[in-house]
TrEMBL record, chains A, B, C, D, E, F:
Domain Cupin type-1: 70-218
Protein name, UniProt field: Germin-like protein
Disulfide linkage: C41-C56
Localization of this protein: Secreted, Extracellular space, Apoplast
Length: 226, 226, 226, 226, 226, 226
């Protein structure tokens, strides 16, 4: 696959149109949003008034460009501890999605890369593998792991709110495109949330949670300190 | 692009894993479905009881394979009047989507191909162009056309229920992957609905609708008769 | 029926209280809106802030008159190409409907008049024929036409988002009153959307859609140019 | 108005197509139902399985007649204590409404008749007066009464779940047609619920509620005993 | 139970942390609200803009204290005609609940006290008896009374929108804690709504409703005049 | 507080009516469920047909006892690694909650006990502390920890889908009663899901997730093996 990405046909392909660096912000996710009450309501991200979702731009300022987004065309920068990058096309990045109840993201995974266990608090995820081969797993609330190796062209689904992960199992890069049934997708990434929050979760909570000594907790926290 | 599809790197790419023929059934689409009431409810497509959506398979028969689908990996057969093919990954094709409020489809367009004006009665569509370059347009209920040329890697959105079309504007094949915020996506394709329904719509309705003579209506009907 | 409308008992009847001209704006329709979060939220149609739906007037300015509307009492002007008139009592016309998830319209049809094929992007329609006799038909996404001749006093239903039409089949005027499960009902009227949009849909799209020559498309467009 | 109903033009009008007696069952009402997951799901009222709403008839048994109803054409029998009659066109009476989130009713009021204070537990009501002149009032949860005299052709709205009443204020019969944003509309009629339930509400509850003696309670109960 | 409340261990118990007087405002209640579109949206109760629900405080002003409320800790003042007190922890009292679709209340009942028949226009209620023993009853829209004596530790449920009451059946005080599936819970209390509204409901409506003489109506009204 | 639980007045109090052992099943949780379509639909837990939620018992078999539950009256058995017990009153335990969109649970915490980090995939939680003093914390998807010490009588809220924990900070037992805006509440408990699932999550996933050696992962897994 690395071969493909470097060969002559690559320029025709969108994945590497540019190697723009994407800030690693773990925040894909979604839900069944309130129904739209008009044809569209393009988000005014700078409104002084904040509501459930976003206020709309005046209709007179809406044009065709509000319904197209270029953010998914750029490969994310995977030079980080997880060797992965999440690029969100949610309402914050693509204001035309406001009130429409859908969003997308792309996940780039370097060889060996992982999108560690996380959940989307308010939506289901359906994804397609575009490049490579990944292990996708989710755990039900009854503690049953459901997992599949998903190859390019195949589709997977993660039920709303369940913890799941994506691991690159191939020899080259991997790329997935996922959709979420909420415009305001976010992710709760387990290691960041438990060991890298501000302020930090008390060690007493974490030692009791994982049944380990405080030194183990401190060691993990040191890797996720921000 | 045709070059890419025929060259040596193609086998790595999912689009042409096989050139299986897909029956041209115009039926992508969607909505904000009722929320799920359990982790999952894999559809029992053969249940004797029919409900809003589908009944569930017993949990004891659910396994990891219920959450993966291979239908999007196959290129559709575009040998038809519209030179396009729609392949649905909705709950009928991917039962694991049941109750989860999301689905996908792929649209293959031969050079010059079109997915003619249609609407999804119950959902918004968000799509990504994977190969090629298409003209995507929708018309608001105020009769304003919003359209964009969308290139590989870029994303578009079609608000719920609005009439829209996709036209291949490139020199080679085009491929889009779209997501819908309803598991049971269907399409109402304008020419088929108006001129190819069973039974047919009375000519009086159509002549008055389009302000044309009956001979024009009969001529169009002859092309969509089934 | 024309007799009834002109006879002495007519003054008791609301249909012709006045022959006010209603601008022909094709825009009935709707959906399952977000639930209300307070007893009522009368729309402030002039708010500087736009949201999904409308902001509310201050409670101190709400009085009984906010919950009554007179717009449906006026017969519409059917002097137009379709010999029909649509009068909406949606939230724009009746601000008290805001957040309440319901609206109405009236459709007046002169003899031979039609409300041409259209869809309501976000709601189901249930209607009652008040005067006359109409042919009501809708086409499912499987291209099956369901139609009935509906007489005064009888009720029909059009599932959400499906294309449908109403044709006056009687010798006199016809009148229907419909309800929609969304306060912000609008209509996407097929001939206007396809042939009368601003900007216009490219002829290439329409010739491929209807499999006709460009001259036919130009001819139809000339009748819907605005 | 009684004159109109008996005069020569009446046969053209649906209200008295037949003077069929309608059993006085106080049960109009509504809500924002779960969204439909298919084009339609005509209720199977005799299914052995009961679900939220109703299971669907097989698609092969659905035809055009499932989408029309004749129940609203018949005038109700107002020979009862309230001099009024409610005729419901909800999913039980019109199975084609199932999953579609809308229903209707008609209220016939003899001179002096009343539809006493009641609420619709799960929906908003929007109504049109077809004949006569009525006083429509509802009380907010803050105990404010909003009321209007509504004449033929005019429209009113009752926010979801609020207690309201309709009183015939004219000299003749009155008729209203209302719509509800739920297919399974029902009514909770205050006098019947408080004084005519089975089993009866303990007198202690009612004397404390209305701050009256037990004899007053017993007297009222005697009028609503069933 | 009164003993418990007066004994030495009582100070450890929250019920009487303070005997603050709570204004008797009958307004608990609820519904299935629109889904949240972000992690949280703490209500800005003083916003100049009013929407369905409340606008949000800026995220920069949100802190941990927004997610805790002390209002339920205070016993209500039951020195009133019903010998009961309702203390609401809805979004107006606890702004952190905004957009989250849940709220609570506490009902204090002196010996013999009653929370008279009322309904929550937009939500279901689930409650737990904390102290004492109460009779909880609701009446279905088919006029069937369902009632139970509910003791400390036991739970009851009242379906959305149905009329219900709570009567203290024990010898001491009673306390219930209820939850509602709407952040903006309110109550429509039957005696207050029918006999204490502003303006008042016409006597004609009430005499016809309860089939009593005007003097009985006037007598009841005199007790609920505000 | 331990004093209260052991003293003479305790028998009057529900918390220790009996020290029944409750199986430690971590599964509280919730969401905004589809609206009810009838007054009630008491779950038939043994139906051969499975749907989104549960089918209903026939109305003829429903009686008052369907709307009361005794499960919350029993203290849970906290003799386990977390020194805590969760007792659910969701639709599985209290079938009358079916379709009504609400449920409850009780959490018993021995001194030092914890309900470890978990999320409710489909609902918001609002809770009241009945006995004791607990630390309640949740982490937003932006990795911000919001936490409060919550004392008896006080209320807290946890936004839908976010990871949170409850730690007993007092010297005696603690008890909380929580409500959820979904009838089918479940919990995804982080340590159980990540280290105790069946089958287990591959060590490669967990070492990369927490940036620790495989021996640490194996050690934690050994404590959660089932």
């Amino acid at each position: 696959m690395a071969t493909l990405l470097n060969n002559a046909s690559a320029p025709y392909f969108f994945l590497i149109l540019s190697l723009t660096t994407i800030i690693l912000s773990f925040s894909p996710s979604h839900s069944s949003d309130p129904d739209p009450l008009q044809d569209f309501c393009v988000a005014d991200l700078n409104s002084a008034i904040l509501v459930n979702g976003f206020p709309c731009k005046p209709a007179s300022k809406v044009n065709s460009k509000d319904f197209i987004s270029y953010v998914l065309a750029k490969e994310g920068n995977t030079s980080n501890v997880f060797k992965s990058a999440i690029t969100n096309a949610n309402v914050q990045a693509f204001p035309g999605l406001n009130t429409l109840g859908i969003s997308m993201n792309r996940v780039d995974l370097a060889p060996g890369g992982i999108f560690p266990p996380h959940s989307h608090p308010r939506s289901t995820e359906a994804g397609v593998v575009i490049i490579g081969e990944v292990l996708v797993g989710f755990v039900s609330s009854s503690n049953v792991l459901y997992s599949n190796v998903v190859k390019a062209g195949d589709m997977f689904v993660i039920p709303r709110g369940l913890v799941h992960f994506i691991l690159n199992k191939g020899h080259g890069k991997a790329l997935t495109i996922s959709a979420f049934n909420s415009q305001g997708q976010v992710s709760s990434v387990v290691p960041n949330i438990l060991f890298g929050s501000k302020p930090t979760i008390p060690n007493e909570v974490l030692t009791k949670t994982f049944q380990v000594s405080e030194s183990v907790i401190k060691s993990i926290k040191s890797k996720f300190a921000s």
